[in-house]
Amino acid sequence: MSKVVKVGMADLNICRAPDVIITLGLGSCIGLVLYDPVSKIGGMVHYMLPDSTKVRNNNNIAKFGDTGIRELHKRVIAAGANRSRLVAKIAGGAKMFEVSGLSEVGNIGARNAETAKKILRELGVRLIAEDTGLNYGRTVELHCENGQFHIKAVGKPVKII
């Protein structure tokens, strides 16, 4: 019997087959999963902001892409995932508000997605699929049994990447 592991906003967790790990309501946030297809161990971080060094009160490591992705990487390996087999998938990073000009706020989703790619490169993890950008929210779930990343959005068919 599989169970559902929930990841909240500014949160991260890991799971293993046959479980499913899920996060709700990704807007400009990123839902990033790391997955080892052999051990079937996966994990997810739901981060809100790209860079912890730009914020004074940054004690929640899962809130930021730079610290949250590294922590998730550490935890899935500690749980038994093989570093060289890990793959990543990301979703979210939407532009939820129309803001004039090159506002930092309006562009947060794109910056969040860029941070994911940068940190993954540093960690040597291949990004094999993404569903980012545009202007709608997403709910995502990683099925640890097969590595499928299900992306749900209001009024759209479920996308599996």
Helix content: 10-25%
Q: Can you list the strand order of the major beta sheet? A: 1-3-8-9-10
Q: Sketch the topology as an H/E string, one letter per element.
A: EEEEEHEHEEEE
* N-end to C-end Cα span: 24 Å
Tell me how many strands there are. 10
Beta-strand percentage?
25-35%
Radius of gyration, rounded? 15 Å
Mean pLDDT: 94
Largest sheet: number of strands, sense, barrel closure: 5 strands, mixed
Shape: globular
Number of helices, where a helix is a run of at least 4 consecutive DSSP H or I residues: 2
Low-confidence stretches: none
Structural classification: alpha+beta
Describe the overall structure.
It is globular and about 45 Å long. Helix 1 crosses helix 2. Helices cover 19% and strands 35% of the residues. The mean pLDDT is 94. The chain is an alpha+beta fold and 161 residues long. The protein is built from two helices and ten strands. A five-stranded mixed β-sheet has the order 1-3-8-9-10, with no helix packed on it. The longest helix is centred in the C-terminal third of the chain and has 16 residues. The two termini are 24 Å apart.
